[in-house]
Fold this sequence. Notes:
Helix content: under 10%
Largest sheet: 9 strands, antiparallel
Mean pLDDT: 97
Amino acid sequence: MEKSKQELLQYIGNQAQLGGTRHYNLSDGPGMGMRAIDVNTGSGLTYTVLPDRGMDISLASFKGINLAYLTPNGETNPAFYEPEGLGWLRTFNGGLLTTCGLTWLGPPVKDGDEELGLHGRYSTIPAKQVSDLSHWIDDDYHICLTGTTEEARLFGTKMRLEREISGVRGKNIIKIRDRITNFGYTRTPFTILYHINIGYPLLSEDAELIIDPVETNPATDIAAEGINDFRKFTKPVAGFSEHVFYHRLKADNEGNTGVRLENKKKGIALSISFNIKQLPILTQWKMMGQGDYVLGLEPCNVPTRNRVWLKENNILPWLEPGESVKNDIIIELTEI
């Protein structure tokens, strides 16, 4: 039986023995100067939050097993962001979570007078009002980090994302709660994608995707050729071309749904839970290339198409002045 707070405190001299958070600044390479917060749940799950990347999550492991795919860029300071075309890829670090949006995502396009690069600006904007609100509630130590990121400009859109990342000591769960608000005075497009990037060794030829879609649509002809194998993975393949699929998942009466990647050889599984009323689509990015070996499981409110395509197909979401929406995502690690 788990000890009470008062019993536990008699065994330790510092909360860090049980888990919690650790704040520091990166001091080398392209990440130099960025704030970082390590989270240790005290039961095997550890991860790193980057306030200067919109409170996204980079490194993550469970019982010593790496979970996330990391690009060759690694943790990169947003000062190096290149907004044009595919320049986003030069500062994309992968990690457990990269948020895409907030007013466009998908491939580059020109929308009127605006040049929209890949996947939007959000992940290259530092958060402000970053707080560590971790505290005891009765016998449970609650880990809670908050921060606010604003994507705004003069004579343009004004969007605010308030993020809370939370969990409880002893439980291998990450809860992400976002509140997105149009704090301007004109309606604005609103697109968001939670780019959850799973890498080796959790992802390998021994992994299997557990998913129950109502429908699945390939994004490209190349993806269509692999549609019968989206649940399975291979060893790294020379010259592999990425496969992207759009899934609409079965859900319960409240809209709750999820997807899970299992690796029985490693004995662990990563589950992602969300609500289709908030995020109706799961984009799957399957990339089995050499060195570019990653599975993206990406809850989103639109397909990963550019903003012009979304307008033309009359499916671009908008937020009215003062309007807010909330998104909730839970990532859980289990032994199997």
